[in-house]
Design goal:
five-stranded antiparallel beta sheet, Uridine Diphospho-n-acetylenolpyruvylglucosamine Reductase, domain 3, seven-stranded antiparallel beta sheet, Uridine Diphospho-n-acetylenolpyruvylglucosamine Reductase, domain 2, alpha+beta, Vanillyl-alcohol Oxidase, Chain A, domain 3
Length: 528
């Protein structure tokens, strides 16, 4: 009978006995036995009967597609405050045959940190978010439950001339962003967040706490861009902090396609990745309706940037390399680095940095995202076709992030993140909506947009960024997914690094306990 069922149904059926027979009492007893602070079990574990269960589960679900009653919910949620409680959760989950999902900030685009078709628990690291900044050594130990905003804030309170090259969204968890790469406004000078990791602490499948020395260089390599969820529970990172000048400059120039934005973007493609590494100039598209009610929708493009220096040095550089942009002194604002963090996060740069400590997004929506890498300029004709497609959905937008700089100098195999030299820029496609009834229509529209772009982006493979997770690329339907099956999506994220990642997975988690829809497969002799 099972042969006629979809594979995802087979998964569910094969594990449904666990859901119906999950022994919560035994789990709690096991957890108490293995946790060093056994008297804190009641505060650490939230069960389905607990009145705070729903609010805790939903608190960091960032994509409303997964905030509904049809999404599978965990048997319980563990919110550890120390490594021993993570160890206990892993040991007891294996003993009772229940899967684990690990959540830091809840920003996984496909909800894999809090949704599973198999019976599961969530290890939510929200209470492990200590940030210890050592200004003298220019480093920081950061617990995985901290958000990027909390990290930036902590640095700013200790130094005005140190920063870190992570992303712009302050509510993203450090754990997910760093383990997947981490692209931000100063990455052209300092590389990814993952490139600046010098140590880490992980609880492995055996319940052991390992630092860099104990885990070995292969596993340490894998978790810096390969995603942590395949290998264990990473609960702390040690970062190198990077120097930033006392004064930086931000700027923005906006144009519509009626104001020659298409020509500007075509020129931008040839310029942005060649600019000095101190200069970051990205482009963001949006669908707008002009003030005249009789006018049709059009595309606006915002060319926004950050320069690690003062206006007086920025303007000559832009006027020489990209005079068509028409950047003027009036479009530029000097500020501190932490103020630029506020600016790119959508806050007033004159406000208090304490706003970065808010772990809750100001608004949430239903959304679907995809990504691409561009290696050759897209023609103006093809761009016009892209605009025609985007205008079909006014909630769609693109973020075009220039590469080059130090990113072209780092080897493709230095970390699992392989998108280095040869990439001009990265595209994130995004569409948002307000109601569950729109899910299918919006997702199908996004797939059509992605199909349209196929001739103009990287090929063999058509590369993608893991932190913009996309299950359309492929997924694991069964625990014993083969290398060949997983390579359908794995080569797109990791290219030739995928093979090494599978080897590390096989060595560190041979029974494939840390499984999800895009975790690395376990290889065995003769099995492809």
């Amino acid at each position: 009978m099972a042969a006629n069922l979809p594979l995802i149904s087979i998964i569910f059926l094969s594990f449904c006995y666990v859901a119906s027979s999950f022994d919560q009492v035994s789990f709690l007893q096991c957890f108490s036995l293995h946790s060093f602070q056994s008297n804190s079990t009641s505060k650490t574990i939230t069960t389905r009967k607990d009145p705070t269960y729903i609010s805790l589960l939903q608190s960091s679900i960032q994509n409303l597609r997964f905030l509904n009653t049809s999404s599978p919910s965990p048997q319980l949620i563990v919110t550890p405050v120390n490594p021993s409680q993570i160890q206990a959760a892993i040991v007891c989950s294996q003993k009772l045959g229940v899967h684990v999902r690990v959540r830091s900030g809840g920003h996984d685009y496909e909800g894999l940190s809090y949704v599973s078709q198999m019976p599961f628990i969530i290890i939510d690291l929200r209470n492990m978010r200590l940030v210890e900044v050592d200004v003298e050594k220019e480093s920081a130990w950061v617990e995985t439950g901290a958000t990027v905003g909390e990290l930036y804030y902590a640095i700013s309170q200790k130094s005005k001339v140190l920063g870190f090259p992570a992303g712009s969204c302050p509510t993203v968890g450090v754990g997910g962003q760093v383990s997947g790469g981490g692209v931000g406004t100063i990455f052209r000078k300092y590389g990814l967040a993952a490139d600046n990791v010098i140590d880490a602490k992980i609880v492995d499948v055996n319940g052991k706490v390992l630092d860099r020395k104990a885990m070995g260089e292969d596993l340490f390599w894998a978790i810096r861009g390969g995603g942590g969820a395949s290998f264990g529970v990473i609960f702390a990172w040690k970062f190198v902090l990077v120097p930033v000048p006392p004064t930086v400059t931000v700027f923005e120039v906006g144009k519509t396609i009626e104001e020659d934005a298409t020509m500007l973007l075509y020129k931008w493609q040839n310029v942005a990745h060649k600019l000095h590494e101190d200069l970051f100039l990205h482009a963001v598209t949006g669908v707008v309706t002009p003030s005249s009610s009789l006018a049709n929708k059009t595309i606006s493009i915002s060319f926004g940037g950050l320069y690690l220096g003062k206006i007086e040095k920025l303007l000559p550089s832009i006027q020489e390399s990209f005079p068509e942009l028409g950047l003027t002194r009036e479009s530029c604002t000097e500020m501190s680095w932490i103020q630029s963090v506020l600016y790119f996060a959508g806050f007033s740069q004159d406000g208090s940095p304490e706003v970065l400590l808010n772990r809750t997004q100001s608004s949430r929506s239903f959304f679907k995202a995809k990504s691409d890498f561009v290696m050759e300029p897209i023609s103006q004709t093809a761009l016009q076709g892209l605009w025609n497609k985007l205008i079909e959905d006014e909630t769609s937008y693109l973020i075009l992030t220039p590469y080059g700089g130090v990113m072209s100098q780092i080897s493709d195999s230095a970390t699992p993140f392989p998108h280095r030299g040869g990439n001009m820029y990265q595209i994130m496609y995004m569409v948002t909506w307000d109601s569950e009834e729109e899910n299918n229509q919006k997702i199908n529209w996004m797939r059509e947009l992605y199909d349209y772009m196929a001739p103009y982006v990287s090929r063999f493979p058509r590369a993608a960024y893991m932190n913009y997770r996309d299950l359309d690329l492929g997924r694991n339907y069964v625990i014993n997914t083969t290398y060949a099956q997983a390579s359908v999506w794995g080569l797109k994220y990791f290219k030739s690094n995928f093979k090494r990642l599978v080897k590390v997975k096989t060595a560190s988690d041979p029974a494939n306990f840390f499984w999800n829809e895009q975790s690395f497969p376990v290889s065995s002799p003769g099995r492809r």
